[in-house]
Amino acid sequence: MADELVSSEAYLAAPHPGRTLHDYLRIIIRRRWVVLSVFLVLVATTALYSFTATPIYQATVQLLIERQQPQIFDTRDAAAAQMKSEEFYQTQYKLLESLALAKKVADKLHLAQHPQFAKIFENLPPEADKTQQRQAEEHLVNAVQSQIEVKPIRNSSLVDVSFSSPDKELAARVVNTLAQAYIEKSLDLRYAASQEAGQWLQQKLVEARRKLEDSEGKLNQYKKDQGIVALEDKETITAQKLEQLNRELVAAQTRRLEAETRFQEVSAGRPIPEVLNNPLIQTLKGEEAKTIAQISELSKKFGEKHPRMIQLQHEIAATRGKIAAETGYIVQSIKNAYNMAKNQEENLKQAMETHKDATQDLGERAIQYRVLLRDVETNRALYENMMKSLKETTATGNLPSTNIHIVYPAAVPDKPVKPKKVRNLALALFLGAFLGCAAAFGLESLDTTLKTPEEIETWLEVPNLALIPHLEFSGAPEEVPEVVVHQEKQTLAAEAFRGLRTSILFSTPGQAPQIVLVTSTQPMEGKSLIAANLAAVMAHAKGDVLLLDADLRRPSQHQTFQLEKEPGLTNYLVGEVAELPVQRTAMPNLWVTSCGKLPPNPSELLGSARMQEFLAQARQRFAQIVIDSPPLLSVTDAAILATLTEGVLLVIKAETVPRKAAQEARNDLQEVKAPILGAVLNDVPLHRNGYYYYHQYYRYHYYYTSPDGVKTKRRSKATSTPGLLGYLKNRIGPGRAKKAS
């Protein structure tokens, strides 16, 4: 059993789940009257409006608006400058809704005399001036315009134009007249545009003719001054000649580089192919080689002074002279070829520069010529285009053509469009339910009091040890009606106190706390009632139990058990009595120490050494000690006593204590390092639907433990709430009840 227990430290470290769908359903059920009030008010208001409002009829005419291209300029630039399609249609829609068109319709149909609009002029005095009359007419036009509605049909050139009125025949007449007036307005605008375009073209045509004549005169005069006959042929010949000179210059540069290379090789004394491959030099080289061979052979027989040797030496010298002479001729020819190639290159460069100057001069003259020629061509094209547009505008200006057509004229509507009763009621049902739930959740968020064990565990981060229902006291005074665990009545509350006893006994590992302090956040939370019933239920299970009334400011335990107020705790603390001032109650094993005289300094007495002696003697005599102390936020008595106990029980009255106040009380206990066992949610109204699931749990528990469980079950079924509300109670009730215990 001990292995299954969870310590308070482990519990605080565990994650707290958020709200589930069951939580939201419980909020709605608990605040069902708010939801129903908002729902019924909205539905009733909507129904009253829908069934009493004047019916409004709407007639609709469908128009086809084709986008027509302007015919003044038939060029690409003019087409690119036309109005975009979207802008065109938006302009047409605004024209349909314009005040000018509404005024035209009002004048045609004499709407000022119609009963729907006649009241606008009824308030005018007989001697009304022009300003007042004009204001009334503007009011009429605005009233007509406000009822016009334009609805374009997507991805088409169609548009629906509607007019709303209580008079269904008037609605059809107005919207059909509006369509005709719009077509007439379009024709008038087109005719006026054609007339203006014709006059403008006539003026511009004269200016274009004059510009064309001036540009042609300038071109002819320039050709005479520059002697230009056929500029294009001359430019072609000049370009070809320049290209040929460029090719010849490149060839001459190549030849000059080759001759320069051969000349440098020869000047450096290096052999070149022209010398090595010369036939004469090769022959002379052969003769030289033969003579050298003969000298080498004869030198073995004769000396250098021999006539034959001398003859051969002369022959070698002559041959070598011929080779040198031939080589000189070749070198000179290479040098001459280099000089010739260099001169030819210089001549071609000079010719190229001269021809470039002539070409540039011709290009400059051609630029001015083409500028003048382009002016002539532009002016001629503009003149011809204006002439053509003028003829087309003159020919088509008087034709009554339009790009607007009536596809479906408006018929007299047979059903009103407003009010839409079914839609309004459906929307009211949805919005009523939504706003009702929103109001319930809003009030729930504004309500900061602690109401459920889950809220205590979430906001205070301490375990909730028990949930005590609301108690109704009745009976004879001698029965001690406040101590419900001693009676057969209110069995749900008695079972709750037994569960609290079990939770305290197993709240700490090892031995159960012997001294338990019962306190609360603020007065009137039922802490004294909890302390009395806790002591009584502990007396049923263990040995002698002492209930100590340590509330030295507003004691109540002596009244609860109908005992003498003195001698009590204060009498012992001030030394008037030496023995423990305990009194036996009518309940077995339960003893009570009353308050005694009310002292002027309760905090000093409770924190004295005499108080510690009292608790030490009580420990030896009683198995359990339950201390009833003042509230935490009112005085410091409870905080002082908390340091002398082994466990503190914080009582929270349901729907009364704000979260912040409860947190401050918990913080006060934590500051003095008091051992907080947990909290008790007291005075819970289980009869309310928000706590129905806790009531279900206790009812089922009582059915299981009571000897007449079958009857109880049948009776509970007979008294359960019928309908959807009862179904929701049954669905969301048992699912969370076990956790609450």
Keywords:
741 residues, 4-stranded antiparallel sheet, 12 strands, 61% helix
Q: How would you classify the quaternary structure? A: single chain
Query: How much helical structure, as a percent, in the residues?
Result: 55-70%
Cα distance, first to last residue?
17 Å
Widest sheet: strand ordering: 5-12-11-6-10-7-9-8
Strand percent estimate:
5-15%
Shape: flat
Q: Regions with pLDDT < 50 over 5+ consecutive residues?
A: 1-16, 69-83, 705-725, 727-741
Q: What is the total tally of β strands?
A: 12
Contiguous helical run count: 27
Mean pLDDT: 75
Helix/sheet category: alpha/beta
The radius of gyration over CA amounts to: 61 Å
Major beta-sheet overview: 8 strands, mixed
